[in-house]
């Protein structure tokens, strides 16, 4: 089962796998709806072994440029929405004797760049939540994995991403460096470069990042053409 904002985006999956896939529209900022969808999913399936929390979007602009509504909405979506999904799933996973939660984060949950303050706040926040929950639920046979993707050719930048009402005072400021990244021509140049298409994924036995992680962690890092943006997953338990 998958939750989406537009069922038309997954119509091909529903047509190809009518007996194995179904979708529901869900706004993760609606906590009551999150709980209802999770309840229906477990009731219909009997058992769900893996719960993937993937809701989120980007918000660009200096902190001062963001509106109160933009701040509230990205926190409600990227952070609170993921927290409530995981909380709703935990009683079912405990009752069935285990399972795994996969939380999609970002390399932005380990580093921070100007012009992305609220996005980073949500990703650092959800990683802290997931790391704590992993220790709480391990005795029940429930594992938690954080996935931290680097750059990828999706609609993240040009579809769901939002931009603040930019202020002239920040022209030429590092907070507006994201404008070049949002230019489709910039992404197209990187995506078709030989370096980007031949870069390999290496396996690191321990994280070299900012935090000290549990010994059970396994990090996978892939570097994006010369810019040092990495993608990896962390198996917390």
How would you characterize the overall build of this protein?
The structure is a single chain. Helices cover about 40% and strands about 20% of the residues. The chain is of the alpha/beta class and about 240 residues long. The chain folds into 2 domains: about 45 residues, no CATH class; about 140 residues, 3-Layer(aba) Sandwich (Rossmann fold), CATH 3.40.50. The strands form 3 sheets. It has a 6-stranded mixed β-sheet with strand order 3-5-6-10-9-8, with helices on one face. It has a two-stranded parallel ribbon with strand order 1-2. Strands 4-7 form a two-stranded parallel ribbon. Helix 4 links the parallel strand 5 and strand 6. The longest helix has 28 residues.
Major sheet summary line? 6 strands, mixed
Name the CATH architecture of the largest domain. 3-Layer(aba) Sandwich
- Rg over CA atoms, rounded to whole Å, is 19 Å
Structural class by SSE content = alpha/beta
Strand content: 15-25%
Order of helices and strands: EHEHEEHEHEHEHHHEEE
Give, in spatial order, the strands making up the sheet with the most strands: 3-5-6-10-9-8
The end-to-end distance, rounded to whole angstroms, is 24 Å
The helix tally amounts to 8
Low-confidence stretches: 195-210, 212-230
The total number of structural domains is 2
Number of strands: 10
Tell me the quaternary state: single chain
């Amino acid at each position: 089962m998958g939750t989406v904002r537009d069922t038309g985006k997954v119509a091909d999956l529903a047509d190809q796998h009518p007996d194995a896939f179904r979708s529901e529209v869900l706004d993760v900022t609606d906590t009551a709806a999150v709980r209802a969808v999770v309840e229906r999913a477990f009731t219909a399936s009997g058992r769900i072994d893996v719960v993937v929390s993937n809701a989120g979007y980007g918000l660009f602009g200096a902190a001062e440029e963001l509106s109160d509504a933009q701040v509230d909405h990205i926190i409600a979506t990227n952070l609170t929405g993921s927290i409530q999904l995981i909380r709703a799933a935990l009683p079912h996973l405990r009752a069935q004797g285990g399972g795994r939660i996969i939380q999609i984060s970002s390399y932005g949950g380990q580093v921070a760049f100007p012009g992305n303050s609220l996005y980073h706040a949500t990703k650092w926040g959800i990683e802290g939540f997931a790391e704590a929950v992993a220790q709480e639920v391990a005795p029940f046979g429930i594992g938690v994995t954080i996935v931290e993707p680097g750059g990828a050719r999706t609609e993240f930048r040009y579809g769901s991403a939002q931009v603040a009402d930019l202020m002239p005072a920040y022209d030429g400021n590092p907070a507006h460096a994201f404008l070049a990244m949002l230019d489709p021509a910039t992404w197209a140049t990187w995506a078709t470069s030989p370096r980007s298409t031949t870069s390999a994924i290496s396996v690191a036995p321990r994280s070299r990042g900012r935090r000290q992680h549990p010994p059970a962690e396994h990090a996978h890092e892939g570097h994006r053409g010369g810019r040092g943006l990495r993608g990896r997953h962390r198996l917390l338990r």
